[in-house]
Design goal:
By secondary structure, this protein is mainly α. The protein has 10 helices and no strands. It binds heme C (HEC).
Length: 233
């Protein structure tokens, strides 16, 4: 609260004819006690209720309500977690039980998966890795550590489980993206990264006849990607 400003207000200025300044000063003087009351009264009566301290029990918190002193009831014998067991460690983390990088996708790599991967990649990865995977995203341009390009030969050789594992556990300065991306989405992003990598080294026989004809000719105008900066220019 700016009490320092109030003390310097010339109180006699109303009589001195400085009507505008005086009116402002008067308003400030009237507002000040009200603001003071709003701040102090709740503190005095102790009715402050932080949202993080809600009147409810946390899991496993102590309570006098039940005989065993716990707020949570024990699980019924034979209870099975549905969808949260995470027992397929290779699917969850990209590394199998022996810590080896998973080499194959656990689902079909089709257009639906790639579209999902592109969507998640553009949202969560492109701010740093940029939309083409060069590692020159907008956050990096503003000073964040530059990651290795996904087109670096080492990463072109990497198997999909490697990318899933980086997303699951983080890597150096990059934090984990497990809270944002469920395991299936991590695999979708890995598939899209591999599509980005392939896009720079497609064997000619995989190209359509039209594209091959274009390559064989002498194009006068080289088509450029719309933008390589993630659209943040
Ligand atoms: C806030 C910036 C940022 C975001 C967002 C980000 N990364 Fe990274 N990433 C980095 C940095 C920086 C490194 C290098 C870390 C280091 O070396 O300390 C890195 C490293 C990596 C590597 C390891 C490369 C290597 O050298 O082996 C992979 C793979 C990777 N990121 C994938 C992803 C994916 C996939 C996403 C989206 C789910 C993502 N990153 C989101 C900044 C980011």
């Amino acid at each position: 609260m700016r009490t320092d400003r109030i003390e310097t207000v010339p109180l006699g200025s109303r009589q001195a004819g400085r009507a505008g300044a005086a009116a402002t000063a008067g308003r400030r003087l009237r507002i000040a006690p009200v603001a003071l009351l709003i701040g102090v009264v709740p503190w005095l009566v102790g009715c402050r209720q932080d949202m993080h301290d809600q009147p409810r029990y946390e899991p496993l918190e102590a309570s006098s309500f039940f005989d065993n002193g716990a707020a949570s009831r024990p699980l019924i014998e034979g209870t099975v977690a549905r969808g949260h067991l995470g027992e397929d460690v290779g699917f969850e983390t990209g590394l199998d039980e022996n810590g080896a990088v998973v080499a194959d996708f656990p689902m079909a790599v089709d257009l639906v998966l790639l579209e999902r991967g592109r969507n998640r990649y553009d949202v969560f990865c492109s701010p740093c890795h940029d939309r083409l995977g060069n590692g020159r995203g907008m956050i990096v341009r503003r000073g964040y550590k530059q990651p290795t390009s996904f087109h670096d030969p080492r990463l072109v050789e990497a198997r999909p489980g490697y990318f899933v594992n980086v997303m699951t556990n983080g890597f150096g300065q990059m934090s984990s993206y497990a809270p944002q991306l469920k395991p299936a989405d991590r695999w979708a992003v890995a598939a899209y990264i591999q599509a980005l990598q392939l896009s720079r080294r497609v064997p000619a026989d995989l190209l359509s006849g039209e594209d091959r004809a274009w390559l064989a000719g002498e194009p006068t105008e080289v088509p450029q990607p719309e933008s390589d900066d993630g659209g943040h220019s």
